[in-house]
Write a structure and sequence with these properties.
Blueprint (H helix, E strand, L loop, with lengths): L1 H32 L8 H15 L4 H19 L7
């Protein structure tokens, strides 16, 4: 029983992580679509602000930088060579 409870807790934690990131991405897309300053792109502003918010929440510079670099490096594999999702 303990193993099932532990796995359920881990699954719930993972679902919360994915839901949180999904909701963030949906909010950014809405902001992108309604941006009153087209000369200022939403994604760079959001990523810059996210990085500083993570720093303010005591994530290390190394954790933050590594996460962004690794995510950017893996994106072409996920995107399958496409610039924008069809």
């Amino acid at each position: 029983m303990a193993v099932d409870h532990d796995q359920a807790a881990k699954d719930a934690w993972q679902a919360t992580l994915y839901d949180t990131v999904y909701e963030f991405s949906v909010a950014l897309k809405k902001l992108h679509e309604t941006n009153p300053w087209p000369e200022y792109q939403v994604v760079p502003m959001a990523i810059d602000t996210l990085a500083t918010e993570l720093w303010d929440r005591c994530f290390s510079l190394t954790e933050i930088t590594t996460a962004f670099v690794d995510a950017a490096a893996d994106l072409p594999r996920y995107a399958g060579g496409k610039e924008v999702r069809p």
